[in-house]
Amino acid sequence: MPLFEIKEINHYFGGLQAVRNFSLKVEAGEMIGLIGPNGAGKTTIFNLASGFYKPTQGDIFFQGDSILRLQPHQVTALGIARTFQNIRMWNSMTVLENLCISQHYRMGYGFLDVLFATRNYREKAKSVIRSAMELLELLELSAAANEYPKNLPYGLQRRVEIGRALTINPKLLLLDEPAAGMNPSDIDRLIELIRWIRERFKLTIWLIEHQMKVVMSLCDRLCVLDFGQIIAEGSPSEIRNNPRVIKAYLGDEELGHAEN
Q: Are strands 80-82 and 172-176 parallel, antiparallel or unpaired?
């Protein structure tokens, strides 16, 4: 049984079909890349997978159970975490607070616990801070704990966003263009970070990315999307040598960069 499965999803925005008969199986421990041009429907598929959109047709399964009727926070609670193409953090909160607040949904205290600062609340709040600091240390972000995310270099902002996703102890991590806006040296560090995260946390990762160097370096398998449907699927070497993919998406110059 795959960890995650999408079965024959179709999705429409009004009269426009954004996703067409999309199916995918993700096995535990895999790292899969989803590539394609702007407007191909990649982020729409992530929004469907994480509960932000409900498909017009089809079904989505996690660990064998349908998650079609779940809200995004319920999908997250099952162990599916994601980042976004445009970084979404609470910039009025510190880095530490960003990692803490994302854990509160599973702490098990209520409004009265917070209002009266009960022992239950105090103990669990300490546990949240401790686990957030441990994660910051692992991600080499301890020095930025009391900084506001907006004041950090872009590469570190991405690292904080990934760290926040990791606070829920996910089984499946969805990364939506994590290298967007990064310079070449930041991209190299990101590749090493994702590779380390996968091994350290035993994660299954599904990745959308335009930077071919990232997906070719990291992914076990790639799916190529065009107008909402898969046109090619295979290993990075198979995709690299697929004439249709080369012509439509990668181009000789991009492929050359991917192999550097």
A: parallel
Banded model confidence at residue 260, pLDDT cuts 50, 70, 90: very low
Task: Give the C-alpha separation, 17 to 193, whole Å.
Answer: 36
For 49, the token pair is: 């997978």
Beta bridge mates, 230? 225
Domain covering 81-172 in this structure, CATH number: 3.40.50.300
Per-domain boundaries in the chain: 81-172, 229-260
Listed residue (171, 122, 235, 232) closest to 249, CA to CA: 232
For the question of whether the overall pTM of this predicted structure is more than 0.85, the answer is: yes
Cα–Cα distance between 29 and 252 in angstroms, integer?
Answer: 31
Q: Residue 93 carries which side chain, given as an amino acid letter?
A: M
Confidence of residue 114 (pLDDT cuts 50, 70, 90): very low
What pairs with residue 205 in β-bridges? 31, 173
CA distances from 32 to 23, 97, 99, 128 (A): 13, 31, 26, 31
Cα 188 to Cα 37, 136, 155, 259: the distances in Å are: 22, 20, 11, 13
Task: Give the rounded distance of the alpha carbon of 164 from its chain centre.
Answer: 11
The three-state secondary structure class of 180 is coil
Burial, 255: exposed, middle or buried (Cβ in 10 Å; 0-12, 13-18, 19+)? middle
> Is there a contact between 118 and 109 (Cβ–Cβ < 8 Å)?
yes
